[in-house]
Amino acid sequence: MKPFLKDGKSLLIAYDQGLEHGPSADFDDRNVNPQFIMDIAEEGNFSGVVFQKGCAEKYYKESSGIPLIVKVNGKANLTKGDVISRQVCSVKKAISIGAKGIGYTIYAGSSYESEMFQEFGRIQEEAHDHGLPAISWVYPRGGKIPDLGGDSTKETVAYAARIGLELGADAVKIKYSGNSEDFKWAVQSAGKAHVFMSGGPKTNTDEDFLKLVTGVMDAGATGVAVGRNVWQHQDPLNITAKIKEIIFEGKRIG
Ligand code: FBP
Question: Looking at ligand 1, which residue's alpha carbon is closest to its atom 19?
Answer without folding.
Answer: 200
